[in-house]
Amino acid sequence: MVWFRYNAVSRRWLTHMCGGLLNVPKAESEYYEGFEAVRKAIPPEDLFEWDMKKHTMADLCNFLGVDLPECRKPGTLPKGINVMYIEREQWKITLSIIPLYLFLHWANWRIVGLAWRTLTWPVRRLLFGGKPKAE
Question: Domains of the chain: which residue ranges?
Fold first, then answer.
């Protein structure tokens, strides 16, 4: 389960980076020019501009030309919570992993500290002279 979570997060991150989403427009006019470029490039019969507050699943299904059971539901789409949804849906697993996270944090702190002391030992010896203090 943890593997899937990290794989999904890294996939979303890579999609964000490689999908052109890092090119943030510098001005509002530049932002709207992108939408206008799409409107000019796509024929009107192939373009559906979705409005979450106005359109329903029936509108989307009519545009796509499909008839599914979901298409018959009345009203707009329900709002969903997507912030930390995995942690909310599977809170028992999340809570059971916390001790592992704490242990890994402690082990990482010890390893980085050891590496730092090892790398800075010659400098400490030059600055303070003598043998380094035993810990």
Answer: 91-135
